[in-house]
Amino acid sequence: MQVPLTKEILDRISDAFFAVDNEWNVTYFNKEAIRVLGRQKEEVLGENLWEKFPEAVNQEVYIQYHKAVREQEAVFFEMYWPPRDMWYNVRAYPSSNGLTVFFQDITLQKELANKQEDHYLSLFQNNPEAVFSFDLNGNYLSVNPAMEKLLGYTEEEYIKMDWIPLVIEKEIATVIYHFQKAINGETTHYETIALHKDGHRINVKVTNMPITVGGKIVGVYGTARDVTKERETEKRLVDSEKLTAVGQLAASIAHEIRNPLTSIKGFLQLMKQMKGEAKEEYLNILSDEVSRIELITGELLVLAKPQAYDFQLINVGKIMEDVVTLLSSQALMSGVDIHSNIEALPEMKGIESQLKQALINVVKNAIEAMPNGGNLYITVRNKGGAIVIVVKDEGVGIPKEILNKIGSPFYTTKEKGTGLGMMTTAKIIQTHQGGFEITSIPNQGTKVKITL
Ligand code: ADP
Ligand code: MG
């Protein structure tokens, strides 16, 4: 390094720079090196590097420089220099007459990077949501304190195990499915049931997302939140709604049965006073009232016990034919002409006795809507895999404001009606996961459509 021009350039470049000969004696030391290392030029020039910087002997930098000289290959590394509390980015190039070293003060960048890392670390550590990371094989890499609290294991325990014992058995497939999705680059959200270390179950909402480093997916990040309380509250709400519904139903049943019971009681008392000479007229009334109670309780039983029946392969067309036969005499008496068009249908899974009851209710209503006769059209069609049943009458119809009352228990406009038919029908169709729809125009007629 004797060319004056080069010397000037070297002095001016912003990198710190020094050179040593084959005996590690310093042959050059530029201005930036003076600043960064905090030494004077006169102090080090011509001196042995390791004598001037004894703190470095046998340290990383010492090993790297010797390696460069030994292998005659450049080395690049970052180093922390405790005497100055500084970070350097070092490039050392060996040559036949020694080693030249360029280095930069990167203390500021390092501090910034550390600060950023601290920010991220605190986001991880202080996050109220459980946060965890997996490698591609589903082994835990890290978990935060919220995750330790969520399932009761320490980070060391997590890292030693995989997640399979942490969810209930029937959820394992779901968890694998979402993990695979994340590995393939998709962020997914799902809910599952986890097992706490002490054995109790926890409903958790989980998010899985890929960890990408340099454009490559290297693992999966997860977050989890305990939603057990929310789910319990929801369940209690649904339960209490059910209770209210049952309570309302019980109240209306009591009300409906009370009327005939009052009349039965009255007539029984009357007959008691008559000392055995029961009048046939009274007996008829008693029998009528008892029949009414029988009818109401009978319909309610269909409602109450849908799960007691088995789903079997049935033919809806055949059931409708039976219903038409069953009701043909009633139709005849009211002067109603039934026009039925029933297509050949594939068999479907259903409960025959229930569906028959549902169809009887609908066809009976249609006949009852035409006390002075009319046409009743019944079609059963196979429409793209669904079975569509339409029952259309030319009867009195239903005013719009009443339409939404149809199907509430005991809503009836008939003197001898129970108001349970449509409710039962709707419930049965619901059990069969079908659709039920009523459209009507007053004084023109009503159309009931059932899709199965
Ligand atoms: P019910 O037949 O015992 O009255 P439903 O639940 O079967 O009880 O029907 C409830 C009410 O809905 C009937 O009273 C009637 O007012 C109305 N309704 C049902 N179907 C028809 C129809 N096809 N045409 C006109 N009104 C109907
Ligand atoms: Mg009815």
From TrEMBL:
Residues 252-452 form the Histidine kinase domain. InterPro entries: HATPase_C_sf, HATPase_dom, His_kinase_dom, HisK_dim/P_dom, HisK_dim/P_sf, PAS, PAS-assoc_C, PAS-like_dom_sf. It catalyses: ATP + protein L-histidine = ADP + protein N-phospho-L-histidine. Keywords: ATP-binding, Kinase, Nucleotide-binding, Phosphoprotein, Transferase, Two-component regulatory system. SMART domains: HATPase_c (SM00387), HisKA (SM00388), PAS (SM00091). It is an enzyme of class 2 (transferase). The keyword Metal-binding does not apply. Residues 188-239 form the PAC domain. Its EC number is 2.7.13.3. Residues 2-72, 116-186 form the PAS domain. NCBIfam families: sensory_box (TIGR00229). This is histidine kinase. The lineage of its organism: Bacteria, Bacillati, Bacillota, Bacilli, Bacillales.
